[in-house]
User: Fold this.
Amino acid sequence: MQLIAPDILAEARGMTGAMAGTITVLGVALWLFGWRWHRFWVVAGITLASGLIGLNAGRTSGGTQVMAVGILLAVSAGLLALELAKVLAFVAGGCGAWLAAQWVFPQAQELWAVFLCGGLFGILLYRLWTMLLTSLLGVLFAGHAGILLAEQVWTLDTGDWVARNVAPLNGLVVGFVVLGVLLQAVSARDLEAAEAKSEGATEAEEEKSEEPPPPRQSPNQSRSICRGGNVYSHPARRHNCGSSCHRRQRGAIAQPDPHTRNNRSRRSAN
Assistant:
């Protein structure tokens, strides 16, 4: 089994350098951010595949509305992409289990039980299967496109080179797939931690905004005025001035002490 297929390289040999570079960058992004952007990848992949299927079906049927059929099928599939994601996970898990069983047991026949078991595990382990599938597709895209770029730069026969180095290339692909799954898991953990932190901050702000404001003091609330002319908010309490406070309304003026008045009159008389 050749993961880097010489037939695909031979068919894509006329590809321009710009297109090969774009596919390489897309493969690296899919390898690194497969789970983090999995909704985008699912919608984009299903929309593109449905559009190509619609164009091919309209061309083979000989209809005149080939473009309309392709666009309508692409839009319809794009709108249903997230709902079809679990179905695709079931199919992808089943196909992966089927290919793995054929690789281990080449003479095996009627592997429908393996397909169904792989599909069930694909649904139960949706996150892991998504990481594994996006990592594998990213490595395959980047690998084929990178080899085509190397052929254009160094002018070597990549078909013969790939055919002579099947086992090392398969080992490199498997290693990069496992590394991509680990990187996606670490990136997903950091993303979940950031989302939890932002949600906690939002909830704290909402609770703070829902707290009732402190009660405002009414203008008619009584206050105490001691003999020294100090105004206090606790009416029936003794203060440091040594005199008892009298309850007065706001704006009331403290009455002077009669003994103080008599002492002032005596001093003026003298």
In short: The mean pLDDT is 75. Residues 29 and 138 are 7 Å apart (CA to CA).
